[in-house]
Amino acid sequence: MKKTILTLLTSVCVLFLSGCQWVTTVPDVEIPRYMGLWYQISANEVFFNEGLVGVTAEYTLLEDGSVQVLNKGFVDTLDGEPSEILGNATVWDEETNSKLKVVFPDAPNLPYPNYLIVVLDDVDYQYAVVTDPLEYTLFVLSRTPTMDDNTYAMILGELEALDVDTSKLIRTPQPSN
Predict the structure, then answer these.
(1) CA nearest to 62, candidates 90, 101, 84
(2) Helix extents (H) in 19-134
(3) How far is 103 from 67, CA to CA, in rounded Å?
(4) What tens digit of pLDDT does each residue of 154-164 get?
(5) Among 21, 46, 110, 164, who pairs with 159 as Cys (CB 3.0-4.6 Å)?
(6) Do the Cβ atoms of 112 and 99 come closer than 8 Å?
């Protein structure tokens, strides 16, 4: 029964997405430069990140060209119970490397990329913004635990120019440097 429901939901998503115009992704991502630790500055709160603070994502390039994804955070407070999940990503669009498909244990394996890089500091790779085709998720990421207000405002402006809804973004508490 559970498998039937997941199959039905996946089919509905595929049909829905086939008629959707995805948000524009960045024109080029150098995957090796993108690897490493990223801090979540803000995010749309959804069921899998609800109540998490001190959230990080660490990306590691594997020998087969895929990417190990390790997401970590703490429940409710920076001293709270640790929470982490390990997944794997593959590049979906090798022309730009800006669309990836990330798979986590016990999550539906959808037939489309679910990690779209829509904003990226293409000079120093110090910040990035990631969403999915439905823009259900939205993550503002930084190489440092904090981001100055001017940079954050500039990123919000770039998202608004892409018609990405930023109204659900919630700042993520991070430890001080």
Answers:
(1) 90
(2) 31-34
(3) 10
(4) 999 999 999 99
(5) 164
(6) no
3-class secondary structure, 27? coil
Q: Where are the alpha helices (DSSP H) in the chain?
A: 2-18, 31-34, 149-161
Nearest to 40 by CA among 73, 67, 68, 69: 73
Pairing of strands 36-44, 52-61: antiparallel
Q: Are 113 and 96 in contact (CB under 8 A)?
A: no
Which DSSP helix (H) or strand (E) runs through 127? strand 127-131
Q: C-alpha distances in angstroms, 135 versus 129, 150, 163?
A: 11, 24, 10
Q: Flag residues of the chain having pLDDT under 70.
A: 1-21, 177
The structure's pTM equals 0.88
Is 61 buried (19+), middle (13-18) or exposed (0-12) by CB count in 10 A? middle
Sign for the CA dihedral angle at 108, 23, 25, 121 comes to negative
Structure tokens at 120: 């990226």
Given a contact cutoff of 8 angstroms between Cβ atoms, the answer to whether 12 and 4 are in contact is no
